[in-house]
């Protein structure tokens, strides 16, 4: 366990002094600690009284209720309820079977230990009980939380000096190399308490507080003052190492491994504490790989005797980047060429590129990798000429000049700024690899001009963008470290089920699973989300830990959900782009921006998300600085601009007019109506080509079929069918759940919103057959007010608007419903275009078609004359015969064909209109019509309406 009297602890005290000095200089932390201390005595006394009542009465339920009330009070223990509350509640549930044992266990365990061994015994006793009770299939409190709960009780006793071991303390101290791994829960707490006492003998509890601040703040406090001493000792042990025999003794090998863990722990702290500042100072997305324990990635290699923290461009551990290097001779910081490509060949190439371009005050640093490394300190400055070997350029601080200084972060930042152009230069020079994901993408000359077009034509930003930004601010509070201490479940469900800060689609399985959770399950979900977003380790590891397991508190926790949570909680790193594959995925976006097309082999999903996100940030952040939402919208917009190749170069409307045999001016008039009001209705008798013309016009205006859609209304059409609504589906467990499923309008509206520069067209056939106010609902308002948004029936937490580039073409058969009966509100929102066989653009269409197809032109005269009769008989133009009945190839004046068209299509329609008026109806039978208007006399075949000519 921790060596409280060793040379290590003396070194750690020097680092702890830096941490304590930084914490006491942090005004926010100082205010927080003062606020907590103002209430601490009162809260301590209350908790000791609650414990005394438990010992005296044995009333577990009263203990639980009193403890819950105490934990909810403001003050130093407000975070107890998140972990301690469920732990105590679960233990109280165990009392149903073992009431007396639980009371005795708690009454003993929560009393202040008399010695380290007594503390260990109490923790062991609770662990043993939990292990035994957990085997009975009942939910038990987590043993990992035991030390926190017990030590919190112990810390409130003014007679003792036991520090609180918060939940993540062991992991943090193990990562630093200050606490051994592989300890039991009891051993770990005893070692933690001993370490706090060694660091601050006069007040171990204060040391625990300072270490908590260090973990939460992740602040740069300076390089450990004794870091070089650690390197020197490690170098002495490395010097005795021989590949064939190893170290001189097992004890020396164990010591070398221990020192290497300490060096790696210090490197981890330096990496984590500086990465945000370096990313901000350079405008690059950097990541910090973990330092290896051995000097080389082979088995016959000594443990390391140096310390370096790296901040590299995305692309793997060998990518170029910045390096802070601590050796027995001093400290260097600068640009390292990485290990991509062919090793030494690459370094020679990079060294040659950099020579002659070094900024003032920057020199090459020679890196020794031979037997002299330990003795000579591994690296040394050599001037402005490339010395061969590894490429490392930067500044050098001899001996301990850089150690123990919090302001050394300023020196690092200034050097990084000076070297950033060179780092961009290196990465740009590596374009030749083709599939290398570390390719620098920021040198696309046309992007800046594209941004100005994006801002103007989209436009950006608009009201909708402001709403998304506000949603992220609200959501981020719930997903912050503090927010996840209590867990705002309603807000969390809004995050995963609404379009706020990016749409991830319906998440019905996830929402259904969340709704089925009990209190303990909700807490498990909270802890999982907290670990995902805020635990130590690399982003890709935490992403993979969720994506790679089915052992989650909920079902349906998809990849898009994970990425949306990261985008909300960490906007400084993550763009609101949630998918990898597909036409709008991040891989396709990289290809659109000139990045690598194939580089995913052998990489995890988490790694691919990290790399694609980082490469896109490198391109987009300089264009829209500190605006991840805008950068994502720009990326989507750039993807859609590539679709403009689908737009024809020729006159699409002119071609459509020729094909339709109508005047081109008519189509241009309709286009003008659409541009002005956004929606039109074609109305007229059946068979006048309304739907056909609507489809052909839509094709001319938008040739991409993905940007057009057609629906047909009927009396049962509903809002849920057309826009969106809940629909049943079977989940993975075979249970029926309800999913909010988008209808054709919602889907096309989203496509139009994502691609605002091209028209999207929806054709609504037979629009008057449905109950339109019921089908459109609140969307009727949006048809008229495109710049506004409304809260829809199934989206009460977010606004919805119809994009200005979404157009509607409706068709209306006036034989089914008179235009006079159309709802006045709908009439106001649509322009109505008549399709009448005897008037306007449709006049003479049948004749033109028959002439163009060598058909019997006299049929057009026949239809015109019959329509004239119908207008008189029915007192209006809305029940005429449409021309499309006779626009059939191969008509050729064959009376048999003409009669079939008349008897089975036209006459039933007329019969329906003149029902009960037999004398008038008789004149519209085929043989009578032919006799009056026909151009030839053939034998009359038999048919369903064959009667003597009147």
UniProtKB/TrEMBL annotation:
InterPro entries the UniProt entry points to: AAA+_ATPase, ATPase_dyneun-rel_AAA, Methyl-DNA_Rec/Restrict_Enz, P-loop_NTPase
Residue span(s) of domain AAA+ ATPase: 676-840
Any GO MF annotation of the entry: ATP binding
SUPFAM superfamilies: P-loop containing nucleoside triphosphate hydrolases (SSF52540)
Protein's UniProt name: ATPase associated with various cellular activities AAA_5
Organism of origin: Intrasporangium calvum (strain ATCC 23552 / DSM 43043 / JCM 3097 / NBRC 12989 / NCIMB 10167 / NRRL B-3866 / 7 KIP)
């Amino acid at each position: 366990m921790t060596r409280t009297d060793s040379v290590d602890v003396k070194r750690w005290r020097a680092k702890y002094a830096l941490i304590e000095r930084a914490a006491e200089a942090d005004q926010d932390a100082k205010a927080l600690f003062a606020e907590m201390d103002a209430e601490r005595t009162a809260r301590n006394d209350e908790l000791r009284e609650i414990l005394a009542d438990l010992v005296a009465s044995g009333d577990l339920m009263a203990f639980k209720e009193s403890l819950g009330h105490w934990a909810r009070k403001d003050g130093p223990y407000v975070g107890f309820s998140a972990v301690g509350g469920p732990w105590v509640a679960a233990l109280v549930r165990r009392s149903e079977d073992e009431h007396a044992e639980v009371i005795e266990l708690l009454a003993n365990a929560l009393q202040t230990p008399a010695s380290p061994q007594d503390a260990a015994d109490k923790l062991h006793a609770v662990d043993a009980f939990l292990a035994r009770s957990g085997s009975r299939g009942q939910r038990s409190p987590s043993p990992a939380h035991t030390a926190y709960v017990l030590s919190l009780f112990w810390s409130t006793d003014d007679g003792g000096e036991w520090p609180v071991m918060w939940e993540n303390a062991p992991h943090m101290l193990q990562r630093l190399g200050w606490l051994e791994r592989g300890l039991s829960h009891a051993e770990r707490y005893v070692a933690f308490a001993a370490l706090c006492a060694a660091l601050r003998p006069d007040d171990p509890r204060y040391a625990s507080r300072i270490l908590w601040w260090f973990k939460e703040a992740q602040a740069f406090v300076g390089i450990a003052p004794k870091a070089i001493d650690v390197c020197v000792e490690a170098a002495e042990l490395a010097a005795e190492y021989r590949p064939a025999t190893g170290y001189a003794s097992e004890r020396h090998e164990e010591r070398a491994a221990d020192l290497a863990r300490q060096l790696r722990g210090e490197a981890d702290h330096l990496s984590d504490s500086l990465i945000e500042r370096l990313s901000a100072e350079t405008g690059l997305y950097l990541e910090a790989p973990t330092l290896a324990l051995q000097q080389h990635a082979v088995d016959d290699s000594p443990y390391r005797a140096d310390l370096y923290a790296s901040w590299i461009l995305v692309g793997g551990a060998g990518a170029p980047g910045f390096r802070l290097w601590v050796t027995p001779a001093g400290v260097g910081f600068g640009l390292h060429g990485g290990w991509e490509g062919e090793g030494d060949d690459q370094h020679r190439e990079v060294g040659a590129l950099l020579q002659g371009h070094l900024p003032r005050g920057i020199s090459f640093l020679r890196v020794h990798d031979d037997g002299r490394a330990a003795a000579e300190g591994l690296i040394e400055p050599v001037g402005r000429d490339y010395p061969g070997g590894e490429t490392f350029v930067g500044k050098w601080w001899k001996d301990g000049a850089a150690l123990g200084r919090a302001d050394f972060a300023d020196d690092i930042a200034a050097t990084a700024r000076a070297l950033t152009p060179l780092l961009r230069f290196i990465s740009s020079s590596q374009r030749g690899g083709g599939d290398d994901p570390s390719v620098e993408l920021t040198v696309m000359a046309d992007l800046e001009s594209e941004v100005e077009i994006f801002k103007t034509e989209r436009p950006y930003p608009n009201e909708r963008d402001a709403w998304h930004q506000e949603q992220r601010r609200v959501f981020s509070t719930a997903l912050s470290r503090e927010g996840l201490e209590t867990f705002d479940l309603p807000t969390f469900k809004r995050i995963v089920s609404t379009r706020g800060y990016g749409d991830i689609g319906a998440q019905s399985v996830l929402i259904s699973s969340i709704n089925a959770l009990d209190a303990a399950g909700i807490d498990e979900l909270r802890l999982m989300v907290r670990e995902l977003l805020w635990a130590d380790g690399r982003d890709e590891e935490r992403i993979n830990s969720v994506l790679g397991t089915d052992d989650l508190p909920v079902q349906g926790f998809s990849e898009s959900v994970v990425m949306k949570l990261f985008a909300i909680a960490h906007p400084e790193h993550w763009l609101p782009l949630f998918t990898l594959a597909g036409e709008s995925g991040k891989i396709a976006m990289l290809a659109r921006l000139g990045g690598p097309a194939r580089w995913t082999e052998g990489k995890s999903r988490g790694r691919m998300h990290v790399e694609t996100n980082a490469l896109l940030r490198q391109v987009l952040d300089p264009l829209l600085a500190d605006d991840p939402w805008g950068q994502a919208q720009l990326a989507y917009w750039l993807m859609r601009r590539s679709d403009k190749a689908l737009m024809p170069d020729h006159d699409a409307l002119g071609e459509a007019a020729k094909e339709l045999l109508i005047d081109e001016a008519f189509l241009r008039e309709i286009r003008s109506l659409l541009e002005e009001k956004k929606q039109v209705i074609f109305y007229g008798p059946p068979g006048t080509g309304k739907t056909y013309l609507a489809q052909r016009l839509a094709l001319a205006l938008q040739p991409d079929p993905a940007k057009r859609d057609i629906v047909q209304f009927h009396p049962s059409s509903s809002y849920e069918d057309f826009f969106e609504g809940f629909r049943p589906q079977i989940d993975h467990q075979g249970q029926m759940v309800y999913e909010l499923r988008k209808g054709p309008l919602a889907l096309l509206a989203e496509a139009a919103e994502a691609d605002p520069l091209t028209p999207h067209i929806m054709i609504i056939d037979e629009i008057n057959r449905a109950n339109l106010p019921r089908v459109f609902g609140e969307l009727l308002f949006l048809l008229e007010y495109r710049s506004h948004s409304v809260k829809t029936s199934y989206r009460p937490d977010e606004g919805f608007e119809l994009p200005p580039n979404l157009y509607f073409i409706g068709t209306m058969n006036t034989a089914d419903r008179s235009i006079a009966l159309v709802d006045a509100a709908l009439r106001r929102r649509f322009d109505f275009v008549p399709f009448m066989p005897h008037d306007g653009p449709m006049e003479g269409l049948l004749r033109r078609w028959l002439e163009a197809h060598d058909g019997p032109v006299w049929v057009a005269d026949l239809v015109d004359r019959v329509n004239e009769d119908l207008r008189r008989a029915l007192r209006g133009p809305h029940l005429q015969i449409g021309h499309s009945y006779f626009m059939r190839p191969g008509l050729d004046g064959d009376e048999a064909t003409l009669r079939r068209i008349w008897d089975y299509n036209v006459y039933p329609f007329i019969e329906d209109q003149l029902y009960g008026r037999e004398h008038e109806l008789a004149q519209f039978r085929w043989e009578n019509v032919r006799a009056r208007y026909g151009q030839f006399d053939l034998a009359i075949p038999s048919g369903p309406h064959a009667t003597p000519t009147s």
